Amino acid sequence: MQTIINELITYANKHKTGFTIQLRNGKIHKVKPSEKLRYVFAYKELIVIENFYEKVEMLIEKPVVTKIISQKNVFTIYPYLYDNNGKLKENNIFIGGWFNEKTNSYFIELVKIFDNKTDAMLNGKMLNQYSVYDLLEKKEIIVKEYFDYYCYYIKMEIMSRMAYKGEQTQ
Question: Is residue 154 part of a domain?
Answer without folding.
Answer: no
